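Example 5.3 — Asp-tRNA(Asn)/Glu-tRNA(Gln) amidotransferase GatCAB subunit A
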Amino acid sequence: MHTKSLKELSALLRAKEVSSVELTTHYLSRIAASDLNAFLHVDEELSLAQARAADAAIAAGAGPALAGVPIAHKDIFVTRDWRTTAGSKMLANYVSPFDATIVSNLAGAGMVTLGKLNCDEYAMGSANENSAFGAVKNPWDKAAVPGGSSGGSAAAVAARIAP
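Solution (predicted C-alpha cells):
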C-alpha cells in the first residue's frame, strides 16, 4: 500500500478494495517501526476513529473526494484534536481551539490524520536539526539531514511512512 500515490489510494478506497481502517493501520504500523523521529504526535485511537468515519461515508456513497486517504500535518499547522508544538517545548502541551484552514479543508475532503510531523522550532531553520524534540533523520542516510524546516514531512514521505 505504501508505494501507491494519493490518487491510487483514493481509487482503491472508492472501489472498496481496501478500507480506510486497513490503510490507516498499515501506515500506523510503519510509523511505529520507524526510527526517523519524523512524527512528533501520533494518536492511533483518533486516527482509527477518523478512518471508521471515512469507511462509513464511503459505504453510504457520501464520501468526499479523498475520503479515507491518510495524511500527516507539519506541526506548525494548528489542530483542535492534536497538540501543536511548532517544534518548541514552549508549546509542548498546546492544543488549539480550532483547525488551521488547510487542516479543515483536508478533513472536509475526508482525509484521515496520521499525526503531526517534526519541524525546526517555529519552522525557522534549514536542516531540521533545531526541533526541541530532536533532529529528524534522513531515511536514505541517517548521518545526513532531510533538509528544510519540513524535514519531518520530507523524511516521512521518502520513507513511505506517510503518503
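Remark. The domain at 6-158 is CATH 3.90.1300.10 (Amidase signature (AS) enzymes).
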